[in-house]
Amino acid sequence: MTTPTMIGTHVDVDDLVVRFRRRTALCGVDLELGPGVHGLLGPNGAGKTTLMRVLATVARASSGSVTLLDRDVTRHTELRELRRRLGYLPQQFGYYPRFTVREFVEYFAWLKEMPADEVPTAVDRAIERVGLLDRADDRLKRLSGGMIRRVGIAQAIVNDPDVLLLDEPTAGLDPEQRVEFRDLLRTVGVDACVIVSTHLVEDVTVACTDVTVLDDGRAVFRGGPDELAAEAGEGTDGGDSPIERGYTALLRRVRAESR
Ligand SMILES: Nc1ncnc2c1ncn2[C@@H]1O[C@H](COP(=O)(O)OP(=O)(O)OP(=O)(O)O)[C@@H](O)[C@H]1O
């Protein structure tokens, strides 16, 4: 596994284990991430959402340590300050259908304890960045699924977070929106640590500075998109693009080695 050198560590995960009764969702994951856009790939059930939930401080580790922005997430006294500096779009994103887009994003600005005088500008900027300013006064129940996803992204970025966690953010976005979303990621990732969990290998190729692949609760790869593509060697099966073929070849090799 290759580990690029990082300047400034925003996320430091050491030997993270998460168990649900008899099932182990994560078994000894190490991760050190600084600013940039970091892709998180893996098959269904690999542990991506579990990792995101632990980083978002909504799920607990069974063992191991998780440090975000130099704060230990198990220390309750640090959580409040930490949550102000996080942005999180969960995979299952709940919302209040009667809220307007603006009310909903404002509500999250309030939850994140943003100074009241900064809220109106920050809310409008977040809504503009996801391309929904013309729908800002529409109730959420009137929006399409892709638009709701964009509202979810707006609430996650309203506080200009230092750590932004996006679980399947591109699900339901149309191609034009996906392109704009990737531009947004690149801008946010200049200063912040952005972690994007996705099934779309294409998102990783275009928008991510590096990729971590999880398989069966373990981190089995960390490197640049080119390095993941190189995993395919001369192989031409297992996908339509070089990175898809690299990803498939990697998983085949890892599984053969663990037999
Ligand atoms: N609350 C829970 N109770 C029991 N098992 C769970 C729970 N949450 C997750 N798991 C199990 O942990 C493992 C990892 O699940 P997780 O949702 O993190 O995977 P994922 O990589 O996000 O999958 P997907 O790509 O399908 O969203 C799976 O085997 C899943 O069944």
UniProtKB/TrEMBL annotation:
Matches recorded under PROSITE patterns: ABC_TRANSPORTER_1 (PS00211), ABC_TRANSPORTER_2 (PS50893)
Top-level taxon in the UniProt lineage: Bacteria
Matches recorded under InterPro entries: AAA+_ATPase, ABC_transporter-like_ATP-bd, ABC_transporter-like_CS, P-loop_NTPase
GO MF annotations in UniProt: ATP binding; ATP hydrolysis activity
Entries under SUPFAM superfamilies matching the protein: P-loop containing nucleoside triphosphate hydrolases
Record keywords, A-Z: ATP-binding, Nucleotide-binding, Transport
SMART domains per record: AAA
Domain ABC transporter residue range list: 11-241
Keyword S-adenosyl-L-methionine carried by entry: no
Family: Belongs to the ABC transporter superfamily.
Record protein name field: ABC-2 type transport system ATP-binding protein
